[in-house]
């Protein structure tokens, strides 16, 4: 929950998150600039502020995806094994390798606050 008087808390909730609409929504055409109508269809992926995505998630209107500052990348296939390509957390790997040299502020100005909120 947002602390009303905490500027850092407010700014952390302004981070954009990718969200996929689960239902067609009327009156929110501003999120989909490719469409001339004032609605967004089900299955459309858009970026919106975290505070709005949370409210829409509670109403089961959107599904929130992992934001780019916590992004994942695909692991290359092992030549000697037929393992499926699995995803792993790039940020976690970088912190595990050398946490002192990872620029988290460059990924997101409020990396820790935002991470706690999205978890």
UniProtKB/TrEMBL annotation:
Classification via CDD domains: GINS_B_Psf3 (cd21693)
Q: Which domain of life is it from?
A: Eukaryota
Give every DNA replication complex GINS protein PSF3 N-terminal domain span. 5-57
Give GO terms for biological process.
mitotic DNA replication initiation
Q: Name one Pfam family in it.
A: PSF3_N
User: Known InterPro entries for this protein?
Assistant: GINS_bundle-like_dom_sf, GINS_Psf3, GINS_Psf3_sf, PSF3_N
Residue segments, region Disordered? 73-92
Q: Which GO terms describe its cellular component?
A: GINS complex
What is this protein's record name? DNA replication complex GINS protein PSF3 N-terminal domain-containing protein
